[in-house]
Amino acid sequence: MLAFLIDTSILVVVILVFVFAIYGREYVHLANQGRTLVFDVLVQGVLPAVAAILFWRFRGATPGKMLLSAKIVDAETLGPPTTGQLIGRYFAYILSSVFMLGFIWIAFDKRKQGWHDKLAGTVVIHDEDD
After folding, report:
1. Taking the CB of residue 60, how many other CB atoms lie within 10 A of it?
2. Average of per-residue pLDDT across 17-26
3. Which of 42, 47, 114, 127 counts the most CB atoms within 10 A of its CB?
4. Which among 43, 54, 53, 49 has a CA at the least distance from the CA of 18?
Protein backbone atom coordinates (compact mmCIF):
# COMPACT_ATOMS: atom_id res chain seq x y z
CA MET A 1 0.00 0.00 0.00
CA LEU A 2 2.92 2.34 0.71
CA ALA A 3 4.26 1.78 -2.81
CA PHE A 4 0.82 2.65 -4.19
CA LEU A 5 0.76 5.90 -2.19
CA ILE A 6 4.26 6.81 -3.39
CA ASP A 7 3.32 6.11 -7.00
CA THR A 8 0.09 8.08 -6.68
CA SER A 9 1.96 11.07 -5.23
CA ILE A 10 4.45 11.01 -8.11
CA LEU A 11 1.63 10.69 -10.62
CA VAL A 12 -0.29 13.64 -9.14
CA VAL A 13 2.79 15.84 -9.44
CA VAL A 14 3.37 14.77 -13.08
CA ILE A 15 -0.28 15.38 -13.97
CA LEU A 16 -0.25 18.80 -12.30
CA VAL A 17 2.84 19.76 -14.29
CA PHE A 18 1.03 18.83 -17.51
CA VAL A 19 -2.15 20.64 -16.42
CA PHE A 20 -0.38 23.90 -15.59
CA ALA A 21 1.95 23.73 -18.59
CA ILE A 22 -0.96 23.36 -21.00
CA TYR A 23 -3.89 25.15 -19.34
CA GLY A 24 -2.45 27.25 -16.54
CA ARG A 25 -4.97 28.44 -14.00
CA GLU A 26 -7.82 28.12 -16.50
CA TYR A 27 -7.96 24.32 -16.19
CA VAL A 28 -10.79 24.13 -13.66
CA HIS A 29 -12.91 26.60 -15.60
CA LEU A 30 -12.30 24.78 -18.90
CA ALA A 31 -12.88 21.37 -17.33
CA ASN A 32 -16.23 22.53 -15.96
CA GLN A 33 -17.17 23.46 -19.53
CA GLY A 34 -16.13 20.00 -20.75
CA ARG A 35 -13.31 21.43 -22.86
CA THR A 36 -10.54 19.24 -21.40
CA LEU A 37 -12.06 15.80 -21.98
CA VAL A 38 -9.47 14.51 -24.46
CA PHE A 39 -6.63 15.83 -22.30
CA ASP A 40 -8.18 14.30 -19.17
CA VAL A 41 -8.58 10.88 -20.78
CA LEU A 42 -5.03 10.90 -22.14
CA VAL A 43 -3.17 12.37 -19.17
CA GLN A 44 -5.26 10.97 -16.33
CA GLY A 45 -6.22 7.65 -17.89
CA VAL A 46 -3.93 6.49 -20.67
CA LEU A 47 -0.64 7.97 -19.39
CA PRO A 48 -0.82 6.30 -15.95
CA ALA A 49 -1.75 2.95 -17.49
CA VAL A 50 1.06 3.03 -20.04
CA ALA A 51 3.59 4.27 -17.48
CA ALA A 52 2.72 1.57 -14.93
CA ILE A 53 2.79 -1.23 -17.48
CA LEU A 54 6.10 -0.02 -18.96
CA PHE A 55 7.69 0.27 -15.50
CA TRP A 56 6.46 -3.22 -14.62
CA ARG A 57 7.70 -4.63 -17.93
CA PHE A 58 11.17 -3.10 -18.01
CA ARG A 59 11.95 -2.57 -14.30
CA GLY A 60 9.70 -5.16 -12.64
CA ALA A 61 8.23 -2.43 -10.47
CA THR A 62 6.94 1.11 -10.34
CA PRO A 63 9.04 3.77 -8.56
CA GLY A 64 7.16 3.16 -5.30
CA LYS A 65 7.89 -0.56 -5.37
CA MET A 66 11.51 0.11 -6.35
CA LEU A 67 11.94 2.37 -3.30
CA LEU A 68 10.66 -0.48 -1.15
CA SER A 69 12.84 -3.10 -2.92
CA ALA A 70 9.82 -4.98 -4.21
CA LYS A 71 9.09 -6.32 -7.67
CA ILE A 72 6.36 -8.11 -9.57
CA VAL A 73 7.01 -11.65 -10.78
CA ASP A 74 5.08 -14.53 -12.30
CA ALA A 75 3.41 -16.37 -9.41
CA GLU A 76 4.36 -19.84 -10.71
CA THR A 77 7.89 -19.37 -12.06
CA LEU A 78 8.97 -16.32 -10.04
CA GLY A 79 10.39 -15.07 -13.34
CA PRO A 80 9.35 -11.98 -15.25
CA PRO A 81 5.62 -11.86 -16.00
CA THR A 82 4.43 -11.61 -19.58
CA THR A 83 3.23 -8.32 -20.98
CA GLY A 84 -0.25 -9.84 -21.12
CA GLN A 85 -0.14 -10.62 -17.42
CA LEU A 86 0.93 -7.05 -16.67
CA ILE A 87 -1.84 -5.53 -18.78
CA GLY A 88 -4.33 -7.83 -17.05
CA ARG A 89 -2.89 -6.87 -13.67
CA TYR A 90 -3.38 -3.19 -14.40
CA PHE A 91 -7.02 -3.60 -15.37
CA ALA A 92 -7.62 -5.98 -12.44
CA TYR A 93 -6.70 -3.03 -10.20
CA ILE A 94 -10.20 -1.75 -10.98
CA LEU A 95 -11.70 -4.83 -9.33
CA SER A 96 -9.26 -4.62 -6.41
CA SER A 97 -10.24 -0.98 -5.90
CA VAL A 98 -13.90 -1.76 -5.23
CA PHE A 99 -14.15 -0.70 -1.59
CA MET A 100 -10.37 -1.43 -1.50
CA LEU A 101 -11.28 -5.08 -0.82
CA GLY A 102 -8.72 -6.44 -3.26
CA PHE A 103 -5.98 -4.58 -1.42
CA ILE A 104 -7.27 -5.49 2.05
CA TRP A 105 -7.19 -9.12 0.90
CA ILE A 106 -3.37 -8.87 0.82
CA ALA A 107 -3.30 -8.79 4.63
CA PHE A 108 -5.04 -12.17 4.85
CA ASP A 109 -3.53 -14.01 1.87
CA LYS A 110 -0.67 -16.42 2.63
CA ARG A 111 1.27 -15.22 -0.46
CA LYS A 112 0.26 -11.58 0.11
CA GLN A 113 -1.47 -11.43 -3.29
CA GLY A 114 -4.15 -8.87 -3.98
CA TRP A 115 -7.03 -9.76 -6.24
CA HIS A 116 -5.21 -8.08 -9.12
CA ASP A 117 -2.23 -10.38 -8.56
CA LYS A 118 -4.41 -13.48 -8.30
CA LEU A 119 -6.26 -12.61 -11.51
CA ALA A 120 -3.03 -11.86 -13.39
CA GLY A 121 -1.03 -14.77 -11.98
CA THR A 122 1.57 -12.48 -10.41
CA VAL A 123 3.00 -11.92 -6.96
CA VAL A 124 5.04 -9.11 -5.41
CA ILE A 125 8.31 -10.23 -3.83
CA HIS A 126 11.15 -8.54 -1.96
CA ASP A 127 13.92 -7.88 -4.50
CA GLU A 128 17.17 -9.10 -2.96
CA ASP A 129 19.19 -7.44 -5.75
CA ASP A 130 18.05 -3.94 -4.85
Report:
1. 21
2. 96
3. 114
4. 43
